[in-house]
Fold F-box domain-containing protein.
Amino acid sequence: MDIMNMFSQMPQERFSDMQVCDTFFSNARTSQGVIHPSTGLAQACDRASDVCFPDTIQQDTRAPLKSAKTSRVTNHLHRSILPGLPDDVAKHCLALVHRSYSPSMGAVSRRWRSLIGSNEFMTVRRLAGVVEEWIYILVADADGNGSHWEVQDCWRKHHQIPPMPGHVRDGFNVVVINGKLLVIAGYLIKNGPTSASADVYQYDTCLNSWSKLADMNVPRYDFACAEVNGMVYAVGGYGVDGKSLSSAEVYDPNIDKWTMIESLRRPRYGCFAYGFAGNLYVMGGRSKFSIGNFKKVDVYNPESRTWCEMKNGCVMVTTHAVLGNQMFCIEWKNQRKLTIFNPEFNSWKTVPVPVTGSSCVGFRFGILDGKLLLFPVQGDPGCKTLVYDPNATPGKEWGTSEIKPSGSCLCSVTIKA
């Protein structure tokens, strides 16, 4: 039986952990250091033993007398992840399994689900060197009334994730934190831009499920949003009844709470943000106190909790992405040039986008394997995905990729987990 189907048919807590482990880790085989579902438990544990865990585990066999009920509760709370193994070794064994099977493992028991959905499990995978990079692409529905997320994993398999919960919305923002995707605020399409939302939803990439997080303090849409040092910042945008905003707030995932911070000096909307060297940069968009597009860059320092201004920004940006220590964008006025900003030197440069390889005009960015992907906005089958490698030798920076969304790309994020 296919391992995915086997787990999907298992009632939660139906089988003992040992029965599940014996079934799950059968027939040994590995590939690139990742344990596939057909890999034996013995081999996984042999690899886990190289992580400098204690050679011997001393246990005190003396135990105080307890009631039968207390013993059952205690045994449930302290049940081993994999019977017969220290939990540290067991966690490493599970971390070696290919990420595409994490949702199935999460269905084995509550203990496994809690572990696989935790930040600790991400840390164990990182330390084991088996983190996988997947790209999640938000694609417009064919009828134009919504969107859906498509995923390309490291096997280049193309699949969808469950629909975003709540009503269909627009003007929201997305950010990745701790290996999870956050969809933040926006407005409900059925009610129009006057219905700004404060809702925040989180997609757990390992459990393949959505959950509701704490609401923002201020409903907003068309705002700037980025992660800096493990915190999520939301700045400006439009609020209820289309009022432009200067307010800003920060989300702490450790306590699931949004907190207001110092506001911008002026309202700013249609802008975007990114993090660099511990600071938040807000760029592009407009302000009602300026004529035309706003060229200045607002920079927030989380340590001093203050804003300052920089000149020399870009305007009317249709797509942007951060790769390494540089920010890449395309401006509406010139869809055939990459505009690249280096915050360290406050410098800009432009790179022509080649016509050869794609006749399309209009792109959305993605990032994979340290390269910049340019997805055509149009869903034309003849348009190819372009690839820009900033580390390639001169003259060989451009190429094409087989990675391509099924329709018009709205945005994308890369998640390592």
